Structures are given as structure tokens and as C-alpha cells.
Amino acid sequence: MRKQDPLIIGNKSFNSRLIVGTGKYRNLHDMTSCLEKSGTEIVTVAIRRLNLSTITTNNLIAKINWNKLWLLPNTAGAKTTEEAIRLAFLGRELSKRLGQQENNFIKLEVISDPKYLFPDPIGTLKAAEFLIKKGFSVLPYTNTDPMLAKHLEDIGCSTIMPLGSPIGSGQGIQNIENIKIIIENSKVPVIIDAGIGSSSEATYAMELGAEAVLINSAIAQAKNSIEMATAMNLAVRAGRKAYLAGQMIPQKFAQSSSPQKGLDFLKSK
């Protein structure tokens, strides 16, 4: 029997370590097909995109089977702490309406910079502290700042979600040394969020020791989104297995993989 290796966020357990977003797909059919092929169990939705008064007819919400998938509302589009808090409460209301009564998850994004879309560290910390006191399980999107990550963990965040590179850029995982420090020092799951563009980068994130990755653009904007969703599914699983297996220690010089014993005997012949 395969050894279980669940992803645990707060008091919730998941088998998949790939979180998938719902934006930028060509159509709703592609989106739902990608969610299925990715094997994800957590789906993130931008609350700002939704009209909560019409969620029963909203296509994006209505097309997803919320009996099988866990909603991760996000505060994308919030430029201030106050906006993020308001969207978080709307997100929690949506979770309840969809029947996920115990779902207090919120992916916290506070982005005041319209050009580079880097998260606002001070606004994020303030919003996280307030929301945690209100019973939310906060998953904050952050810069690759180890000290900020520690502060967010100390106030009770359920995960740390450092960016790999700027949102939607597909530039891969940058500032690797800082990410390694965040992973090393964190006692809560570290989830690489933003910038992953290929399956090899998803694998690498997992090999670094990240507990999960969140991917949207790399799947939605691929030439064949459904095949890319499958690739990301396999990549994340492979990266996790490789991390658990333990990488060999790199050597400075070549090391023969063939046995040296017996060579003297062959020479004597």
C-alpha cells in the first residue's frame, strides 16, 4: 500500500499538492477539464470577479463541483488592507453558500503596485493579523523575504506563499536562496505561488522542499491547456517523491558507477 503523504493546511488534509487557479482560460470547458486533469483538490477563485448575488447562475461557480473541490477564495485586486479584509469576508460567505460550512480559508493578496504587482508586505501583515483574529485560515501571498515570512507565521498564518517570480510572468523560480531559507525556517507549509511557467519548474519547486505549488497562467495560457494540466500534475508528484527520496550529494569529480573491483584481474589476462 502506498504510504500516505497528505498536505495539511490548518486542520484540513489534502492528497494533491497542486493548487490551481481559475483565470485566463479560453473558455469554461477548458477550465473544468484542466481542473480535472490536474488532480487538484484546491481551487482558487478571485472574489472580485464574482457577483455573489447571482452565484447560483454564475458560470464559473456553477461549472465547478464543489462537493469534490475545496474553495480557496482570494483577494486579488485588493490594493489596501481594508479592501483585502472586505473581500475576505465576501469569500468566506461564498464558501458557506456553496456548502463548505467549515471553510475559513482565504488566499490573502494586497497589491498596491500596478506595474510589477509585487505584494505589499505591510498591508499583507496588517490584514493577516486582523483576519486571523476573526477566525480565518490565512494563506498569504508574499515576497521572498524570510523575516516577513517568519512574522506571518508567528501571528498564525496557515501557510507562507512566496512568489517564484512576478505574477503571470512565467519567469520561473528566482531568488532561490531566500526561498530555501523560508522553507528551512518555516513550521507551516510553504507554497510557491506565481511565476512558474513549466512543468520542470514545478518539479524543482517541490524538490526544494515546498509543500505545494499554485499554478494558473502556465496552465491556462499553454497552447494545449489540458495537456499542460496533466503535465503539472505529474511534475508536482515527481518533485515531491524526489524530495522525499533524498537527492544524492553532488561530487566535485566524476565518480564511476561501475565496480572497480576485479579490474586488476582483467589486466593480468
UniProtKB/TrEMBL annotation:
Record-listed E.C. numbers: 2.8.1.10
Name of the protein in question: Thiazole synthase
Cell membrane recorded as keyword: no
Coiled coil: none
Reactions this protein catalyses: [ThiS sulfur-carrier protein]-C-terminal-Gly-aminoethanethioate + 2-iminoacetate + 1-deoxy-D-xylulose 5-phosphate = [ThiS sulfur-carrier protein]-C-terminal Gly-Gly + 2-[(2R,5Z)-2-carboxy-4-methylthiazol-5(2H)-ylidene]ethyl phosphate + 2 H2O + H(+)
Pfam families for the chain: ThiG
Gene3D superfamilies according to UniProt: Aldolase class I
One example of a Gene Ontology biological process annotation: thiamine diphosphate biosynthetic process
InterPro entries linked to this entry: Aldolase_TIM (IPR013785), Thiazole_synthase_ThiG (IPR033983), ThiG (IPR008867)
Pathway noted in the entry: Cofactor biosynthesis; thiamine diphosphate biosynthesis
Catalytic center residues: 107
Subunit (UniProt): Homotetramer. Forms heterodimers with either ThiH or ThiS.
Keywords attached to this entry: Cytoplasm, Plastid, Schiff base, Thiamine biosynthesis, Transferase
Domain Thiazole synthase ThiG stretches: 9-259
Record family assignment: Belongs to the ThiG family.
Cellular localisation: Cytoplasm
GO molecular function, one term: thiazole synthase activity
GO cellular component: cytoplasm
Lineage of origin: Eukaryota, Sar, Stramenopiles, Ochrophyta, PX clade
